[in-house]
Batch of 3 targets.
Target 1
Amino acid sequence: MDKILVHGGSRLKGQVMVSGSKNSALPILAATLLTKEECVIHNVPDLSDCHYMLQILNHLGAQVERASGTVTIKAEKIVTEAPYDIVRKMRASVCIIGPLLGREKEATVSLPGGCVIGERPIDLHLKGFEALGAAVRIDAGNVKVLAPNLRGTTINLRGKFGPTVLGTDNILMASVLAEGTTVIDGAAAEPEVVDLANFLIAMGAKIEGAGTRRIIVEGVKELHGAEHEVIPDRIEAGTYLVAGAIAGDEVTLRNVVPEHLHSVTEALIKSGFRIVTGTDQLTIFGNGKAGPLKIVTEPYPGFPTDMQAQMCALLTKGQGISILTETIFPQRFMHVPELKRMGANIEMEGPSAVVQGVERLSGAPVMASDLRASAALVLAGLHSEGTTEIHRVYHIDRGYESIDDKLNALGANIERVKEKSGA
Ligand code: EPU
């Protein structure tokens, strides 16, 4: 297992190329199961989560080839059962249920457990499958979904924490091959859902309204192969923007869709940073301390929960008192105890972190717990004195392509070393 050592205090300057979006690529790869024909997906990030998804597709019978960022998949003959061993490594593997149900009218997939950012149920996915006419049964840790006929209907997918991204993806993928019209109300409007819808449309699906709270799907008899380029990763981009705010003289992100990052750039500008927006690039000028912010995470186009931990790392050394409130995953604050070990002054009040900016952070051994919390620790290390030693970095590698190399190319001083056994 690797650990990352961040030697704080370097200034960052230069350009960083943003990779393809993990959260777009995963459901898009799953959607290739909807056709027997070949699909070619470009800009697939080289991340462990994408490798897991390709292993799952392979297990289901698909032929998978990968050359650099391009993946070619042909799922001519598939089975419909994905056991625990193969899906347990990644919660997002639930998004194979929709395409299996759409194409084969059945799926047996091991149920995902909870995860450190919260309980993460899939009740809304299952409610959607049932509304389409499927029988859903939980048996021996598996969810079995069976639908001799999938029939279009109106489904409200909104839950108590708002819309569900993968739930919307799943119902979308099941309904494209259902009979008649499906209306998904309370749909997630994230750019990743729009990207999936665009791929499905390229495969021959009839979908309107992706990117709004109401998606309308007109079922078709079958889908064909298609070629698609995954959108840039707005969360990876946001993370490098925060790195630029923390330690950047001038950092330019290339291959971004600035509109997808609007709520993040708006917050950084409010905090006192200068950002210059180009067609597909953003430049941030770090200018010392961040001003205080009140951030509330919300579904897109609101401030993303996937950027809350990174903003927290920035504001720990900011001016005054900032408040970060989670409305999507109220327990998603695993970074807080670790940041406190580095000298941060943070108090939890229910689903809010109250951050009093401090003058100085000091590097410490810390534990990565989930993907974004881990990224926050790398960012905090950039403006800490001494060395921050981050353990369990496989969490970071799930969602960031070579974060150490990309930051080092900007001037950071980060090492990746093997943990001694027992560490
Ligand atoms: N929820 C339910 N029931 C469900 C589904 C969701 O109550 O059936 C709740 C969740 O517990 C949560 C809220 O609804 O409180 C929103 O969850 P959502 O379903 O939207 O999350 P997800 O689709 O499982 C995706 C991303 C997450 C991101 C969330 C929110 C992927 C692979 N994952 O998860 O990304 O935080 O949407 O935007 O797309 C990450 O990349 O670090 C990450 C965790």
Target 2
Amino acid sequence: MLQQNKGAVSEASQTADDFIEHKALLGEAKQTAGDAMSRRLVVVSNRLGNIRDLAQAGGLAVGVADALARRGGLWLGASAEYQDSAASDEPLIHLERVGRIETAALALPRQEYSQYYNGYANSTLWPLFHYRLDLVDHRSEFLDAYRQINARFAKALAGLLSRNDDLIWVHDYHLIPLGAALRRLGLRNRIGFFLHIPFPPPDLFVATPDHEELINDLLEYDVVGFQTETDVANFRRSVQTTKSIAFDGNGTANANGRPVSSRCFPIGIDVDAFARMANEAAEDVQIDSMRRQILGLKQIIGIDRLDYSKGLPGRMQAFARLLERHPEHERAATYLQIASPTREQVGAYAEIRAQLEATAGAVNGKYADLAWTPIRYIHRAVPRSRLAGLLRASQVGLVTPLRDGMNLVAKEYIAAQDPANPGVLVLSRFAGAADELSEALIVNPYVVDEVADALAKALAMPLEERTARHGALLDRIRRNDAAEWRRSFLSALAGES
Ligand code: ADQ
């Protein structure tokens, strides 16, 4: 049921205007750090995670749902339903409660949403932040829609807040201007922003004519969080270049008379939950694995959204090079690539799909015989429980993005392994995860021979070396897991660290 924001539920009955008036009556509430756990958490992301079925949820949803469930909280995201074009400009929100979590799905105008999501977010910012200036599409109507949608999110959120000590946690590149839009509405709450994707170096960042606006927006947050130290350094240098504002030794800068803290919070996974799922593999996954065991076939696996940042054609070429340079792997190794459809309205994604299908076809055409298909390529979303089983049943995890904020599949591969007989992770040095996972075989994905040789090394690695590497990696992903990620971000957001 969609309803007008005003009066939707008692707790959320204020409009933005009511809220500002209410705040004026209260006066500027003093911001104290307080106990992060006692303050309501409000999460905002472009889409809502599936909190009814967390087993099927990845990344962000796993990371924040637990915090929301424990302390109670609100999650605002765009609705899958669009706003009727004849509707008034009041935010149209569908509210639902699951346990202690309230979700608010905001209906947005279709055309404006598309120019914001397919346009500015995924045709301008995504390629720019993944160092792909060649793919950046600048259009003034994209930027206008991006700002307009962020203003709609801000108005909706202001109407849903009931307390000025609610902690607000904004996620990802879709919502960079949200903090500034909330400030314009008079909000003085602590607001934090976490960027899930890389932040480019200043030389690339200034290639967008909007760079100064984006930096001004980011400086309106109290905490700006990144996946890696490299991203933090790129951000700080970009602030220095565009605004001549420097960060101190603690990563804090003084902008607009307020401190802004910038730090790295590497995202992690729920290791035990993923390991359990991997252990309970579906029957057909087990049968497939037994069949390979009987045939003596080892499996290399890749799991990704079909995105040009993931380096998929190069990965297939590296597998073909493995067969060329190490012919003992012909009929002895097989490569399974699951690449789920994503952002198909954006031109660059149609191109990568065609390129990948052509590469898979060419390699199979050259090497396949009746008993052996070198590359199995699945262009469909696969349930997570199945993915976990497939990761466990694969002797090599191949994760070779050209640029990636973190890459959770790398961590999921480690969690899924049997510690007594683990597989080997081959990981791109350009994934944020490479900073933590140094016991993986780290490769440069641009050098096909290097990836092919790492695959050969992984396939031949003795048990003793595999268990030693895996043990160290497992320790690392346990230390930096999903709980630690949200604990450290929320403590910084509450001003406690
Ligand atoms: P993504 O680019 O989506 O996320 P990634 O971290 O690898 O990249 O994947 C997120 C989740 O989606 C994982 O849990 C994975 O299992 C799942 N997934 C991937 N491919 C799938 C498929 N084909 N079918 C089903 N599920 C699939 C962005 C950033 C990353 C960052 C995350 C989290 O680009 O760098 O790690 O956010 O911050």
Target 3
Amino acid sequence: MTTHTIPTRQDFPADFRWGVSTSSFQIEGAGQADGKGESIWDRFCAEPGRIRDGSNALVACDHYHLFPQDLDMAQAMGVNAYRFSIAWPRILPTGRGAVNEAGLAFYDRLVDGMLERGLDPWATLYHWDLPQALQDEGGWLTRDTVAAFVEYTDVVTRRLGDRVKHWITHNEPWCSCMMGYWENIHAPGGTSLADALQASHHVLLSHGQSIPVIRRNSPGADIGITLSLHPITAASGSAEDAAAVKRHDGLRNRWFLDPLFGRGYPADTLALVGDAAPTVLPGDLEAIATPTDFLGVNYYFPEMVKDDPAGGPMRASLVEKEGVERTGFGWEVSPQGLVDLLTRVQRDYNPAVIQLTENGSTFEDVLTPEGRVHDKERLSYLQRHLAALKQAVDAGVPVKGYFAWSLLDNFEWAEGYLRRFGLAYVDYATQQRTLKDSGLWYGRFLNE
Ligand code: FCB
């Protein structure tokens, strides 16, 4: 099979997980309902100029109220797993201490709704919506937030741990830390590499410290963390560009993978970041390397880099490939990149299980007067990435599940509602959902 042959469900192992992926802030709305506290993303949206279309997520897809129909849609599509995230400020409006019963009750209803429909709940504890009250005390820059995360994890897993048997501690620390504290694109909005690295250390530490808590409260559960990873190639065959690939990979991928797999932070990357290196206390690296049950991988696009003395701390800069297919975001479409990435992760880290917890694309969608969305590029993207996934499975990579990003069009962070990633189109004025051709095809694939 090549990445051009469209696979069928029967081409995959019978016990493969087929899912859709979502996150709380991006779909729930109900931003101030039932005692929910403010999150850093609520605050960020309120800052002029932060969100490209000036929007916020106070209503978003109103999934908080419409979740039964969304779960019906997922069930009809034929998925057997549903990835969602829990909004920390709904549970602990000020980050720690007083528990908001109404917040827990919402996730009770949501999880029960999944179970009633035969959808296996995959819960992410942190998909970026930190309580603003904790940000006011330093956010991920302070070690106290690690303790607060463990407390929050305890509250959530005590309540849901009997029914949720798949837990993802964090979604994409690269984005919450590097884009949030250094690149100034995501909340809380910072410009310091040192801050980003300290934040990432605390995020990883909170992952490690929460694992025994989840194990205690959710017996038999599978636990993992989800990273956004990128296959990286060199702009030329030169030794300089090859060295630039290694440096860039150090911060982009190995910075997270190495400590999770017990190797500590990569020495070459630490040397390059110099004084920006995080404070690491005795025992931290052991906690971060606490064994998990799977590695969650989110794959969107590959990167190409060249040696560039002016290219930041890694002395590398990104090169735009010419003539390649791109999504509406400008991200390169590369099914082969998925094969390369998964093969690399297996070769270098050998996780027992990999779950592909996100993969998807955004394009300009048009809802026709007949109520159809002919999203042929997204459909082709999905089919070719499933073919790539199949190639990786056949090559012996232990990837056991695929979660399409996303069930619904939603609030795409700093891009607001300008980017549609859903298998279902959302008309934000009426909250009407319409399965796109890609979603209809995924349903046929799953029900075959
Ligand atoms: C990932 C995020 C997810 C969504 C997709 C498009 O980085 O995890 O929330 O924004 O990108």
